[in-house]
Design goal:
This protein is of the alpha+beta class and 446 residues long. 28% of the residues lie in helices and 22% in strands. It has three domains: 183 residues, no CATH class; 50 residues; 187 residues, 2-Layer Sandwich (Pseudouridine synthase), CATH 3.30.2350. The strands form four sheets. Strands 7, 8, 9, 10, 11, 12, 15, 16, 17 and 18 form a ten-stranded mixed β-sheet that branches. A four-stranded antiparallel β-sheet has the order 2-1-5-6, sandwiched between helices.
Length: 446
């Protein structure tokens, strides 16, 4: 059943009003937290991720699937034992230990790892969830079955699984015989340091933790086994917020004929429209590579338009991939429209990026483990000319949106932006490189 967007916005305003009525929450929640709601015929359920002030039982919100925070309970008791081992390990910080002391330290670390894994597995056997038929299963069982059906290696849930809003809401609805009409999660407060989250913006449920659970709790065992693949939300979620909204969204602006920008005996370049994948994906959607009939040498995000280059031979394909990987003799330019007027400015952004493994395909800024990502920019008003000097996933989108970058997302960016628009306004407008066969400079404009 389709739900009007205004009803979702009205429900969100109701939840926000309740959040802000809790003065005691202000400091913790203001630092950022995901909230959610589920609409059903006759009412609304509310939820928050994790705990607030160490509690999972605030009145008016659905309770935790399993409350493991009892002071003298199994989890807290064994967690305290692991904490003592952590303190033992900390005593050796900065000390070069050898001999018997090294063996003792290694033994403590091994015991800590074993105890942590055992406690985590115990916890996931306590999270028992229900589907619409009334059947129940543990989170551990659900992840195992989901992995088996989808040929995945990840059979053990990540830490925190079952504590997000969507699982809480669906489990409560199924347990009480309520039929969901709409489910939505939104961010409240400041953005996390490494991520890009906007206050009041709807977001998809997290991939790694929630996808298998939602698949099972919606009764999809015999349906689409890839339920939320590539950010695809449950059918009763607000559409248009993720990288790819539900499966009927992909009409985009694609035409069956791609504009030819350049061609010789070895290479071909086309103007990829917004809404078309660069290469084939798991869901067998239309893509530029199949339409061209040659191997694409680099990729543009589905929602990015512009120059896409493909090779006619395997040798040239390998040579061009090497050029793009190393950015040797390659110059790229993109044009973007930003969410707001930024005046006139220019400069260089250097923010290392890594994958957000719990929320693919999102990326995050990671100063410790991220890969170098560098972008030159020139801005006039809301128009930005962007020149990536490296080729990281979502580099331009993150460098524009993140608070340590421009702090101004690209208009229409459904992953990192805060404003809706008919498309994401990012276009690959110029590509310059040294031809791998002729050695001549090639310049392609779009």
């Amino acid at each position: 059943m389709a739900v009007e967007r205004e009803l979702l916005e009205e429900a969100k305003r109701t939840v926000i009003a309740d959040i802000e009525a809790h003065e005691e929450w202000r400091e913790e929640v203001g630092r950022g937290k995901m909230f959610g709601f589920l609409l059903y015929d006759g009412g609304m359920l509310k939820a928050y991720s994790g705990q607030i002030l160490g509690r999972s039982d605030w009145q008016g919100y659905v309770p935790a699937i399993f409350d493991y925070l009892q002071p003298d309970g199994y989890f807290k008791t064994h967690e305290a034992e692991i904490t003592l081992l952590n303190k033992e390990v900390e005593k050796y910080r900065g000390i070069n230990v050898k001999g018997d002391e090294r063996r003792r330290l290694d033994a403590i670390r091994a015991e800590r790892k074993e105890r942590s894994q055992a406690l985590q597995r115990w916890l996931f056997t306590q999270f028992k969830i229900m589907n619409p038929t009334g059947s129940s299963a543990t989170v551990l069982e659900v992840f195992g079955e989901y992995a088996r059906r989808n040929s995945l290696r990840q059979t053990v849930p990540p830490s925190g699984t079952g504590e997000c809003c969507a699982p809480k809401l669906l489990n409560y609805a199924n347990s009480h015989g309520l039929k969901p009409l709409a489910l939505a999660e939104f961010w409240y407060g400041d953005s996390p340091k490494g991520e890009v989250r906007h206050h009041g913006r709807f977001y998809e449920p997290c991939q790694a933790r929630c996808q298998p659970i939602i698949w099972w709790m919606r009764g999809d065992e015999n349906g689409c086994e890839a339920g939320m693949e590539n950010g695809c939300a449950p059918d009763f979620s607000p559409q248009g917020e993720g990288e790819q909204a539900p499966c009927n969204w992909h009409a985009g602006t694609r035409s069956d004929t791609l504009e030819l920008l350049y061609e010789d005996d070895w290479l071909i370049a086309v103007n990829k429209p917004c809404g078309l994948l660069s290469v084939p994906g798991k869901r067998q959607l239309p893509n530029a590579q199949d339409m061209i009939g040659c191997k694409v040498t680099h990729r543009l995000d589905m929602d990015t338009s512009g120059i896409l280059l493909a090779a006619k031979t395997d040798e040239v394909f390998v040579a061009m991939q090497r050029l793009f990987a190393r950015h040797e003799g390659v110059k790229k330019e993109y044009v973007a429209i930003l969410e707001r007027d930024m005046g006139e400015q220019s400069g260089t952004i250097s923010l290392p990026l890594s994958a957000d493994f719990l929320n693919r395909p999102r990326q995050c800024v990671d100063h410790e483990h991220g890969k170098e990502a560098v972008t030159e920019y020139e801005i006039k008003g809301r128009t930005a000319l962007l020149r990536p000097l490296t080729g990281r996933t979502h580099q331009l989108r993150m460098h524009c949106a993140h608070s340590e970058g421009l702090n101004c997302p690209i208009l229409g960016d459904k992953l990192y932006g805060s404003m809706d628009a008919p498309r994401m306004y990012l276009h690959a407008s110029r590509l310059e490189f040294t031809h791998p066969v002729t050695g001549k400079k090639v310049v392609i404009n779009s």
